[in-house]
Design brief:
The chain has helices spanning 295-298, 309-328, 343-348, 372-383; strands spanning 20-23, 27-30, 44-47, 52-61, 65-70, 82-86, 90-93, 98-101, 105-108, 122-125, 130-139, 143-148, 160-164, 168-171, 175-179, 183-186, 200-203, 207-217, 221-226, 238-242, 246-249, 271-272, 281-282, 334-338, 362-367, 388-391, 396-399, 404-408. The chain is globular, with a radius of gyration of 24 Å. The protein folds into 4 domains: 19-93, SH3 type barrels (Roll); 98-171, SH3 type barrels, CATH 2.30.30; 175-249, Roll (SH3 type barrels), CATH 2.30.30; 271-408, Muramoyl-pentapeptide Carboxypeptidase, domain 2 (2-Layer Sandwich), CATH 3.30.1380. The protein is mainly beta. 10% of the residues lie in helices and 34% in strands. It has a 15-stranded mixed beta sheet that branches. Strands 13-12-11-8-14 form a 5-stranded antiparallel beta sheet.
């Protein structure tokens, strides 16, 4: 990558870096992801077990190596910020998310009953044990898929496990951006050909950053504020990324929506008029011809009128997905907790400041007979990079933002 050159470096002076790596075995940092025997002495440096570094980001590369961008330390001669290290010799630490085991339990390699697993597929974890967590997501059977940051467990030294949700407590939140296709970060949300060289920077596939925040932007771009990473000759931490080239895990700490829909009236219900549309719509009429979801469900019984035609189009877009979801689950009843929320209502019910509910293309829902974590697990691959998907223990969220985002609400 074109970052990591000394003349482009910003030493952190007052900026808090939360991403760290810890060396867990005496190892060599290398200037190329090769066997150390293939490198000259000048191309490698010994690093002792227990050494820790603050890093701006890391990239998974060939040969089970990580490319590390050190934040405020240089190694070697000449001094260099960019190094490659053997992945099993490192831990990515510094996560603000903590997992506490609240009852003696088993961590499992699959989200099934422990009796269905071989001994090597599960590991006992004692009540009171704590871990730092890189990420966590809902999984089948009221399990949580956790990627542990500071420990490897079991005979194969794994860091990703499934834990039974009632046996653990997870506190804290963070947002990670993972690049899933070689891409350009840009200074403006336009075609790269319209930008000067100092307004764009190449970022490799499988690079991971920690984010301060992110928001939707024009042209299917996402505006991202990197946490502690300053890229390019102008040392920017705010960039625009093309949505299909990235995925985002995690959400804002204060994103804990509590909202319910009122009972729907009998036909035809309340008359509604929408900006940019000439017709009259009724709360008890289906949004889509022949569909099961109504304008009353989308507008909270007609009390939340869209502020623009774009919001209505957002409702139409996600209504198509909701009809498909209903079919996926065998036409079981689907209860809509929350659909469109104007900004004031969104803040009042505890939604994220940049919630997709504000633009109309997000729904919080419950499917009769299914735990929300099972709903998440069933829909994850199907929804792919079309938008966001998340579950609390009491509902599932879906939106059509146009890029992959996944999280657990933690309640």
């Amino acid at each position: 990558m074109s970052v990591g050159k000394g003349q482009y470096r910003f030493l952190t002076g007052g900026c808090i870096i939360t991403m760290r790596i810890k060396v867990t075995s005496d190892t060599l940092f290398k200037l190329a992801p090769k066997l150390s025997s293939e490198l000259s002495e000048a191309e490698k440096v010994f690093v002792k077990n227990g050494t820790e570094f603050e890093i701006e980001f890391y990239t998974e590369v060939e040969g089970n190596h990580l490319q590390l961008e050190l934040a405020n330390a240089v190694l070697g001669n000449p001094p260099t910020f960019t190094w490659y290290a053997y992945k099993p010799d490192l831990q990515v630490t510094g996560s603000p998310v903590k997992l506490t085991v609240t009852s003696d339990t088993l961590f499992k390699l699959r989200p099934v009953l422990s009796s269905e697993l071989a001994d090597e597929e599960k590991v006992f974890v004692k009540n009171g044990t704590q871990f730092e967590v890189q990420s966590f997501l809902p999984a089948d059977g009221n399990h949580v898929r956790v990627a542990i940051a500071n420990a490897f467990l079991g005979p194969q030294n794994r860091n990703t496990w499934y834990a039974y949700n009632p046996d653990i407590k997870i506190d804290g939140q963070k947002i990670d951006l993972r690049v899933i296709s070689d891409t350009l970060f840009k200074g403006k949300p336009v075609l790269s050909s319209q930008l000067a060289d100092n307004e764009k920077i190449f970022v490799r596939n499988k690079t991971t950053f920690e984010l301060q925040s992110y928001s939707q932007s024009e042209g299917n771009h996402v505006r991202v504020a990197l946490s502690g990473a300053f890229l390019g000759p102008d040392k920017r931490n705010t960039w625009y990324a093309f949505g299909p080239d990235i995925q985002i895990d995690g959400t804002e700490t204060n994103n804990k929506p509590k909202d319910t829909n009122p009972a729907q009236p009998t036909d035809p219900g309340k008359a509604l008029r929408f900006p940019g549309f000439s017709g009259v719509y009724y709360t008890n009429n289906p949004i889509l011809t022949g569909g099961r979801f109504t304008w009353g469900e989308a507008t909270h019984g007609g009390s939340r009128i869209p502020v623009s035609a774009d919001v209505v189009y957002g409702m139409l877009r996600i209504a198509k997905a909701m009809e498909e979801i209903r079919k996926i689950f065998g036409n079981r009843p689907v209860r809509v907790n929350s659909w469109y929320r104007d900004p004031a209502t969104n803040a009042r019910v505890g939604g994220a400041s940049a919630s997709r509910h504000i633009v109309g293309d997000a729904v919080d829902f419950v499917i009769g007979g299914y735990h929300p974590y099972d709903v998440f697990a069933e829909l994850d691959r199907w929804w792919g990079s079309k938008g966001g998907l998340a579950s609390a223990t009491v509902f599932t969220h879906i939106d059509s933002r146009g890029y992959r985002a996944r999280w657990s609400y933690g309640f």
